[in-house]
């Protein structure tokens, strides 16, 4: 790019294309200007189609941002500071931050308010993203950047330190003028706002979302003349305090109203509250301009990798949805020993170092020693989070210090019993998550890490970090920190625990966002991907798996809306409900949404293995359905391999079965009320469907009498095996996957091997294209052996079924597509009353060039 083109584009960035044409028209030829305009438009189009390829955005936004230019200084300086990122990661960051800035209003717009939302993952680099956006915004003329950084001093300080190191220190004198620092939140400066605006510098403020701080900020800015000051307000943890709060929310809204030209961009990993804001309220914080779903970065450890997740709509539930074997179970019966239970029980509480807590502490020092053997001398942290009250945190200090001191002494004196236990623990853990699962990592033997273990035990400190404590996690020193961090809320949102290896987590929570944000173990673990471990209860493990599914579905929804080119004001992102957890404390304009069964297959996963009556009811329901169908003379197609198809069963018999069959409460997809309502709706169509069903009995050839189920009607089938996921059983026996993908077409004329070779979508299309099956439902019944054993290959992750009786698994396959719905499974914001035409006109008016703009 020649220097004249760069000067021309610089003018366009700051004042708009029409202003640049007028400014350069008297000194350059029309051919030169047309060439520069073409180059500018080429760059703008490159930003538009860059990474990530799609985003939800409002209509009427005029493309304007060409990306970083040679004369910029803040973005290049920030980019050069990212030496810990790979070149590919930096390139993706460059493109995504350009796309975010490009979806604000252009600089030639005389009056605007951008309201956008960037959805990332917990501990996934959101701070790096908004730092890049701030750098690029300042390079194109934004004169004020305000970062609203959480509600705790620790997060505000951490954010301030990062911006100081990556923005202020790198860009040199005159680029930034910070009004806050590491130790001081915003206080009213002695000078006026105008006095701080000199030259090309941009004012930077990092402020807590706290009433007094925001009051001071509002007061100071209200007294300033802000007629032409482009302002960028970045709301970190945008779902916390910003939404539906009596004090902070009005203050943020008032802040936005101060600026005639303002871009407000929220960042969060838990957007539940943000997407449930009422979009019909004009000055609320609903992200009406854009919603950007940042893809999961390479190398990121999120809920899905650790806990796995359930299959979402149209997806095959295979091994790829399993998480790594990194979670260790804390038995419910020991919880009262590590967390006070009941009102007032924290007074005088003394925690017990249970076997599980002892194992987690021992593993932490072993894993840290293994990192040292690999040459990794950086920070190493363990999180102990058992409750939110400070008295609980303080009670842990002495027992933890005593345990670590005794362990250190035993290692120094080479106590053989201790060393044997440590060796056994290390060998077991490295066997369950081998280093070979991760590229570039080699195994570390116990003897190799033992060289470093004494020094690690000397370095490790117990740090109690809460809003009352003087002791705080501080990674700013010259030596690496090795810490067992005990805390609650100050460690549960936004704050990065450097080098987090082990988490001992039994803190309860009742909302999605609170629980997900507590997962400080999410993030990047370069060089020690095999070492992270989490100790928690089985209930919490199940909750996090549910949240991983919720995350996947939210992103699936946003992706669908992107493909349809819808704007944020036209959509409502659906959020799957949970039988116990609330979605968020700020439900805003939420309403009941819909569950679609068209084209889907749903299956039982959870059973009550010890409840004989429950199991017997389901056996009887299956036998009743089959007996009634055979008595009515339906065609019986016996394949001879244990599979029997009953064809053209009347819907009335299927509905009777569904009314009798007991579904586990954690299977909302199979709620009989929803399924029955959907079937009834299909039956009543002008061109009805689901009036007849094929019933597939998916057993084995009959063997010994102890492994046979009598379905009635002369049909007896052998049982099939479905073992349990490890650490489940009792009232929540989890088999995970009942049916395979090819069973979707088991009643059609296609071989199992051919069906397995097709995609899920192709099988849906195949069923819908068949005249015989396009309106026929498929009900599958699986007789599962009460004593099912795991396959040898799954012996480490599965355990035997130990049910009181044989188990009937049930699956349903529906023809059609996802357009027909029944209520009660999801919530979403109601956008039906939002008038988007007025918004379109407003944006079109704002895009008209203003010749008076300097």
Account of the 3D structure:
- The chain is of the alpha/beta class and 854 residues long.
- Helices cover 35% and strands 17% of the residues.
- It is built from 24 helices and 31 strands.
- The strands form eight sheets. Strands 1-8-2-7-6-3-5-4 form an eight-stranded mixed β-sheet. A six-stranded parallel β-sheet has the order 10-16-14-11-13-12.
- A hairpin with a 4-residue loop joins strand 21 (635-638) and strand 22.
- Helix 1 (3-15) crosses helix 3.
- The longest helix has 26 residues, at 538-563.
- It is globular and about 95 Å long.
- It starts with a helix and ends in an 8-residue tail after the last helix.
- Mean pLDDT is 86; it is low at 834-854.
The gist of it:
The chain is α/β, with parallel strands linked by helices and 854 residues long.
Helix content: 25-40%
Can you summarize the main beta sheet? 8 strands, mixed
Task: Tell me the number of strands.
Answer: 31
Give me the side-by-side strand order of the main sheet. Answer: 1-8-2-7-6-3-5-4
The number of helical segments is 24
In round numbers, the mean pLDDT is 86
Strand content: 15-25%
Instruction: Classify the secondary structure makeup into a structural class.
Output: alpha/beta
Task: Record the SSE blueprint.
Elements: H1 3-15, H2 17-25, H3 30-48, E1 56-57, H4 74-80, H5 87-102, E2 112-119, H6 126-139, E3 144-149, H7 153-171, E4 176-178, E5 202-207, H8 211-222, E6 231-236, H9 248-258, E7 261-268, E8 290-293, E9 300-301, H10 303-307, E10 327-329, H11 335-338, H12 355-373, E11 380-385, H13 390-412, H14 416-432, H15 446-450, H16 453-459, E12 461-465, E13 482-487, E14 500-505, H17 512-517, E15 523-524, E16 533-536, H18 538-563, E17 575-576, E18 590-596, E19 601-603, E20 606-607, H19 612-631, E21 635-638, E22 643-650, H20 651-660, H21 672-683, E23 692-698, E24 708-712, E25 715-718, E26 724-725, E27 733-734, H22 752-756, H23 760-769, E28 777-784, E29 798-799, E30 807-813, E31 821-829, H24 836-846
Parallel strand pairs: 2-7, 2-8, 3-5, 3-6, 4-5, 6-7, 10-16, 11-13, 11-14, 12-13, 14-16, 23-28
Antiparallel strand pairs: 1-8, 9-15, 17-31, 18-31, 19-30, 20-27, 21-22, 22-23, 24-25, 26-29, 28-30
Helix pairs in contact: 1-2, 1-3, 4-6, 4-7, 5-6, 8-9, 12-16, 13-16, 19-20
């Amino acid at each position: 790019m020649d220097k004249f083109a760069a000067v021309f584009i610089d003018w366009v960035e700051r004042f708009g294309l029409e202003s640049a044409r007028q400014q350069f028209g008297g000194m350059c030829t029309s051919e030169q200007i047309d060439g520069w305009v073409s180059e500018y438009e080429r760059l703008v189009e490159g930003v538009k189609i860059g990474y990530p390829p799609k985003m939800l955005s409002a209509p009427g936004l005029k493309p304007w941002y060409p990306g970083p230019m040679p004369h910029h200084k803040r973005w290049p300086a920030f980019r050069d500071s990212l030496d810990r990122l790979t070149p590919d990661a930096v390139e993706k960051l460059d493109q995504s931050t350009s796309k975010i800035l490009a979806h604000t209003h252009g600089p030639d717009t005389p009056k605007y308010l951008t309201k956008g939302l960037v959805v990332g993952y917990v501990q996934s680099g959101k701070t790096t993203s908004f730092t890049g956006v701030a750098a690029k915004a300042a390079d194109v003329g934004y004169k004020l950047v305000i970062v609203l950084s959480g509600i705790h001093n620790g997060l505000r300080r951490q954010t301030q330190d990062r911006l100081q190191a990556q923005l202020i220190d790198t860009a040199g004198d005159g680029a930034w003028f910070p009004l806050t620092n590491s130790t001081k939140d915003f206080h009213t400066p002695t000078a006026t706002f105008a006095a701080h605006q000199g030259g090309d510098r941009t004012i930077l403020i990092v402020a807590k979302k706290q009433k007094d701080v925001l009051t001071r900020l509002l007061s100071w800015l209200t007294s300033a003349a802000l007629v032409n000051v482009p302002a960028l307000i970045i709301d970190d943890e945008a779902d916390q305090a910003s939404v539906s709060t009596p004090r902070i929310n009005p203050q943020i809204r008032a802040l936005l109203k101060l600026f005639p030209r303002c871009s407000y961009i929220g960042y969060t990993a838990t957007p539940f509250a943000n997407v449930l804001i009422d979009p019909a309220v004009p000055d609320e914080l609903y992200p009406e301009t854009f919603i950007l779903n940042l893809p999961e970065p390479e190398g990121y450890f999120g809920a899905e990798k650790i806990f796995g997740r359930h299959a979402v709509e149209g997806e095959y539930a295979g091994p790829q949805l399993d998480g790594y074997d990194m979670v260790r179970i804390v038995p419910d019966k020991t919880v009262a020993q590590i967390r006070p239970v009941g009102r007032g029980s924290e007074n005088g509480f003394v925690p017990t170092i249970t076997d599980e807590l002892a194992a987690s502490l021992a593993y932490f020092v072993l894993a840290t020693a293994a990192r040292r053997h690999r040459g990794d001398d950086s920070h190493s942290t363990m999180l102990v989070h058992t409750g939110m009250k400070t008295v609980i945190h303080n009670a842990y200090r002495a027992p933890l210090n005593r345990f670590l001191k005794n362990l250190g002494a035993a290692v120094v004196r080479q106590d053989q019993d201790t060393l044997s236990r440590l060796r056994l623990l290390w060998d077991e853990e490295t066997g369950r998550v081998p280093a070979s699962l991760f590229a570039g990592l080699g195994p570390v033997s116990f003897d190799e890490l033992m060289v470093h273990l004494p020094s690690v035990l000397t370095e490790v400190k117990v740090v109690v970090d809460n809003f009352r404590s003087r002791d705080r996690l501080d990674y700013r020193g010259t030596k690496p920190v090795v810490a067992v961090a005990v805390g609650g809320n100050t460690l549960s949102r936004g704050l990065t625990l450097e080098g987090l290896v082990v988490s001992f987590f039994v803190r309860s929570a009742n909302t999605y966002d609170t629980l997900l944000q507590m997962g400080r173990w999410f993030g990047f673990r370069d060089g020690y991907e095999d070492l992270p471990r989490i100790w928690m209860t089985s209930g919490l493990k199940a909750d996090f798996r549910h949240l991983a599914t919720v995350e996947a579905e939210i992103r699936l929804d946003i992706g669908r809306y992107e493909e349809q080119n819808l704007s944020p004001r036209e959509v409502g992102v659906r959020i799957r409900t949970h039988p116990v957890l609330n979605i968020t404390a700020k439900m805003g304009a939420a309403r009941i949404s819909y569950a679609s069964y068209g084209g889907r297959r749903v299956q039982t996963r959870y059973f009550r293995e010890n409840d004989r009556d429950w199991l017997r009811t389901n056996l009887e329901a299956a036998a009743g359905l089959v007996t009634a169908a055979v008595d009515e003379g339906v065609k019986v197609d016996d394949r001879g391999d244990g599979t029997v198809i009953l064809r053209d069963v009347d819907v009335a018999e299927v509905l009777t079965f569904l009314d009798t069959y007991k579904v586990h409460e954690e299977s909302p997809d199979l709620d009989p009320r929803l399924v029955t309502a959907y079937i009834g709706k299909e039956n009543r169509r002008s061109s009805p469907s689901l009036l007849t069903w094929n019933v597939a009995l998916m057993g084995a050839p009959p063997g010994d009498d102890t492994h046979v189920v009598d379905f009635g009607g002369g049909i007896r089938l052998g049982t099939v095996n479905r073992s349990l996921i490890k650490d489940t059983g009792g009232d929540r026996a989890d088999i995970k996957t009942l049916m395979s993908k090819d069973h979707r077409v088991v009643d059609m004329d296609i071989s199992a091997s051919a069906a397995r070779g097709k995609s899920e979508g192709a099988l849906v299309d195949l069923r819908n294209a068949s005249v015989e099956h396009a309106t026929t439902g498929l009900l599958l019944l699986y007789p599962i052996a009460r004593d099912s054993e795991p396959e040898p290959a799954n012996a480490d992750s599965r355990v035997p079924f130990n049910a009181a009786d044989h188990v009937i698994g049930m699956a349903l396959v529906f023809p059609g597509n996802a357009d027909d719905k029944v209520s009660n499974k999801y919530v979403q914001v109601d956008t039906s009353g939002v008038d988007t035409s007025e918004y379109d006109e407003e944006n079109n008016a704002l895009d008209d060039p203003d010749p008076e703009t300097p």
